[in-house]
């Protein structure tokens, strides 16, 4: 190694002979280099990665505060240093450990959770260390980046449609509850209601902040999803540092548009959010949030972005062992071909038809016989109850339209990736038939496939082969 750059030569070749005089056993005092003593950390070797889901660094912001002409010190708690990359790793660990302590779960059980993604990553991290399987229900608009990480951690994703009301059986909450009823030894830990969510922040996050600031803090600002962070930290601060103001940040609501800051606005007050602890609320636009995040990266070096995932490196790590099902065809599934509805029929007529036929969902066709999506009884009832439609509204207004058409020849692997994005897929089977008068015509049969149909098939397949359930 060179002890200094050779400024007088233009030779920048990376393999010039080293001029370093360092040798094993030499007294460090005579070292040609500058040495820095490190302070030993308390834990020498972490027992597993879950120990890396706390004690995140607090960093002083030096430029953004000056630009904003702030008179106070501005500090950032870098939760992205947690092993799974977000504050949600803390609740993933804590909710699983609590359920274990209460005897509610044992290794091998299935953890189901409706999640925007980061709680899923936190749960999946704890689940893979402790031996649980995970199924996460994510609305269709949530990003594929998170889906890819979740797959790499061995979790399965079920999509729910974007256009539902909260209490619809098709919402992420409704779908998660249906799955939990159908899957043996499964549990929903429910981040929106679980007391361990705010508690982990009360016990840990808040203590870390108070220790770093020697108990002196004027203001604590946090964004809110479940409200677990702000509630837990806020409650501890009100006890130990009562003059400290607690400021909640919500992302803006744009009517009719999806929020791009994932997971932060749901239009309801979660059980885990104690609004009485919050002194003032602010709304932050999507644009301002993203500009600030980029400035934190480029001006302060706080790399709060998903570099690895953006470049799809994590996608490549998905294991496909014990996954014979991937090569099998859609024709192997137990498909139930369905009668159809015409798009111009009223919701009233469609509910009657579904009741008569004992069906919960039916494909909807336009006037030319082309499939435009599916209508579900649950969504129609929820939309009627919420006053968003009336009984004479055409069914096309409550039809879920995000889907891909597949055939009996589509592989289950392809179907699985489609259902990583969409709530359902439609199988169209076209057969040429001839009538008694020898006229040849095309007969179309239609079936709806959802992730649960695929999961049931894979569970059965792997049980029959007595294989460990992997890559579902
Ligand atoms: C990265 C990240 N930070 C913060 C939050 C909000 O935290 P909380 O749910 O504790 O309010 C979320 C919510 O999903 C999140 O994903």
From TrEMBL:
CDD domains: CBS_like
PROSITE patterns: CYS_SYNTHASE
Residue intervals of the Tryptophan synthase beta chain-like PALP domain: 52-305
Cofactor(s) required, per the database record: pyridoxal 5'-phosphate
InterPro entries found in the cross-reference section: CBS_dom_sf (IPR046342), Cys_Synth/Cystath_Beta-Synth (IPR050214), P-phosphate_BS (IPR001216), TrpB-like_PALP (IPR001926), TrpB-like_PALP_sf (IPR036052)
Database matches in Pfam families: PALP
Protein name as annotated: Cystathionine beta-synthase-like
Annotated organism of origin: Saccoglossus kowalevskii
């Amino acid at each position: 190694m060179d002890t200094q750059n050779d400024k007088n030569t233009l030779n920048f070749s990376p393999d010039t002979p080293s001029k370093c005089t360092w040798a094993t056993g030499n007294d460090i005092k005579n070292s040609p280099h500058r040495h820095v003593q490190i302070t030993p950390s308390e834990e020498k070797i972490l027992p597993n990665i879950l120990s890396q889901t706390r004690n995140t660094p607090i960093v002083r912001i030096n430029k953004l505060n000056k630009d904003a002409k702030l008179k106070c010190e501005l500090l950032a708690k870098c939760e992205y240093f947690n092993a799974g990359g977000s504050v949600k790793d803390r609740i993933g660990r804590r909710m699983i450990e609590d359920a274990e302590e209460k005897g509610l779960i044992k290794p091998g059980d299935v953890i189901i959770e409706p999640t925007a993604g980061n709680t899923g990553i936190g749960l999946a991290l704890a689940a893979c260390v402790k031996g649980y399987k995970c199924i996460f229900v994510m609305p269709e608009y949530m990003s594929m980046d998170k889906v890819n990480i979740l797959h790499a951690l061995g979790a399965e994703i079920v999509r729910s449609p974007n256009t539902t009301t909260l209490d619809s059986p098709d919402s992420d909450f409704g779908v998660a509850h249906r799955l939990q009823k159908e899957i043996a030894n499964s549990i929903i830990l429910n981040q929106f209601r679980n007391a361990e969510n705010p508690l982990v922040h009360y016990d840990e996050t808040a203590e870390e902040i108070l220790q770093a600031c020697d108990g002196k803090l004027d203001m604590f600002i946090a964004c809110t999803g479940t409200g677990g962070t702000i509630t837990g930290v806020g409650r501890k601060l009100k006890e130990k540092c009562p003059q400290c103001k607690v400021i909640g940040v919500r992302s803006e609501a744009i009517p009719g548009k999806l929020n791009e800051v994932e997971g932060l606005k749901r239009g309801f007050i979660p059980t885990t959010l104690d609004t009485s602890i919050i002194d003032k609320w602010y709304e932050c636009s999507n644009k301002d949030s993203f500009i600030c995040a980029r400035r934190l990266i480029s001006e302060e070096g706080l790399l709060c972005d998903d570099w690895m995932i953006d470049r799809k490196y994590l996608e490549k790590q998905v294991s496909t062992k014990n996954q014979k099902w991937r090569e099998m065809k859609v024709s192997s599934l137990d498909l139930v071909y369905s009668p159809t509805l015409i798009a111009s029929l009223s919701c009233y007529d469609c509910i009657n038809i579904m009741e008569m036929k004992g069906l919960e969902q039916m494909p909807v066709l336009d006037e030319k016989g082309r499939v435009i999506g599916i209508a579900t009884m649950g969504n129609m009832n929820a939309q009627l109850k919420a006053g968003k439609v009336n009984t004479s509204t055409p069914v096309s207004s409550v039809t879920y339209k995000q889907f891909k058409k597949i055939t009996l020849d589509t592989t289950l692997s392809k179907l699985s990736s489609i259902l990583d994005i969409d709530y359902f897929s439609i199988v169209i089977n076209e057969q040429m038939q001839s009538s008694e008068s020898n006229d040849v015509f095309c007969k179309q049969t239609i079936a709806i496939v959802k992730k649960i149909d695929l999961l049931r098939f894979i569970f059965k397949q792997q049980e029959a082969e007595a294989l460990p359930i992997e890559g579902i």
